[in-house]
Amino acid sequence: MSRDVVIMGAAETDIGKLPTTSTLELHVEGARRALADANLTKDQVDGIASVSIPGPIQVSHALGITPTYVDGTGVGGASFLFHVRHATAAIKAGYADVVLVTHGESGRSRVGASTHPRGNDSVLAQFELPYGVVGPPTSFTVPARRFLHETDNTLEQLAEVAVAQRRWSSRNPRAMFRDEISVEEVLGAKMIADPFTLLMCCLVTDGGGALVIASREFAEAHGSDKPLVHVLGTGEAATSPLISQMEDMTRCRQFTLSSQAAFKESGTSHADIDHLMIYDAFAHVPLYGLEDMGFVGRGESGAFVADGHTSPGGRLPMNTNGGGMSYTHTGMYGMFAIQESVRQLRGEAAAQVDGVETSLVLGNGGMFMSAATLILTNQR
Amino acid sequence: MTTTPEVSPEARFAPRATPETQPYWDATAAGRLDLPRCRPCDQVFFYPRSSCPRCGSTDLEWVTCSGRGLLHTYVVSHRPAPGFPVPTVIAVVELEEGPRMMTNLVDVEPEALELDMPVEVRFEQRTGVAVPVFTPTKADS
Ligand SMILES: [Zn+2]
Predict the structure, then answer these.
(1) How far is ligand 1, taken at its centre, from the CA of residue B56, in Å?
(2) What ipTM, to 2 d.p.?
(3) pLDDT digits (tens, 9 = 90+) for B112-122
(4) Which residues form the Thiolase C-terminal domain (chain A) (predicted)?
């Protein structure tokens, strides 16, 4: 009765500095490439999912699609994982056959990016922005000192996260930063929000991408010869719109909740995961992710990374494209984390890991605000 | 090269009240830190809302907090923000009454800060509004 759901198409646009490409065009180009990857035409798409800027209606209209399933969930950089989860449910329910999930963001060049004037009476504006908060680098970072204080993790291990990811990006020609770095270089880089230096913070780039989600039956009947990536299990959760209102500054509850849901639905356990993508807007986020999803014990994440277990040759390869700190980060990175997971499962990644059968993607939205988890596999 | 931005509290971002937060901002203007308390739970919570985030009750009253708390966590921001000095200490303080709030630590060298050190509130004037900030508690106060 239930329909097995797959990712049958996945592609990114060019990434980096794209001053002549608008936000909308990044969505559209990503969609065209993903449809070509799936060997479909736009007329076979009946569902569209995208974040609020420029929005699913603009994107589908620009592509010439009249969707009968629309998802505009906009909960930050994890939104695209939410879209995959919702599309999976919609396809199983029979609400759609082929859902296109698009992302495009002129994060660096700001071309065609709607610039909402920041109001001063939202909850965020009243209770956080008055304190000299100038975006994520000065807000997302605030819990980290408490995290280091209450766990056995150290500042050097925080730097090791950036070091480990650069080992991966050094093998990826598309990555923005490819030179390997040392802990000393990370700690000695320009200070942004002490204890975070520039090398512990994500990039700011332009780029986009899209996914084509469909039932396995449809994909086998209509798709390309690319290996299908099965959506085994998904989860989502949200907690606080303000970082100061996290229940516990040293834990991210939605990482726990969304991963538990994904593990339960998929019938897998931690031992089954042989590739991991954890949204790394800043160096502390993968440490929270490893601990809060239960891949390591409390306070053990820093040593796990420092000992090389997430690096090339390690037993849990993590952020194998180089991540948001070294590969690309348009502002909402989740699409790129999914794309790398798909590439690893298809065996076509730049830094391909041998024998990847099951991959877990953890997306973060806002500043520890929302999260979603996808467990994907090439086995069926 | 970066230039040191002008340090001017008036130039800093000024929040504007909404009806449910108006009593909070009225209190700060009068030099008090007032927060809602849920009568059934006996919990004081931040930020002001029309129902208790724990039990959902709308049976709330406003209480005046002591203005004392502990420094829970912080970063020392080196990113220029309008009207702020570089660096600026962006912190989360845990109030004596329980809730946590974002704030700035002022009149202290960042090197002198320690987690869990006692701090106390003061109010900084912006355009038409007084914003609560904190400073380390003097030993004899
Ligand atoms: Zn209550």
Answers:
(1) 6
(2) 0.94
(3) 999 999 999 99
(4) 235-377
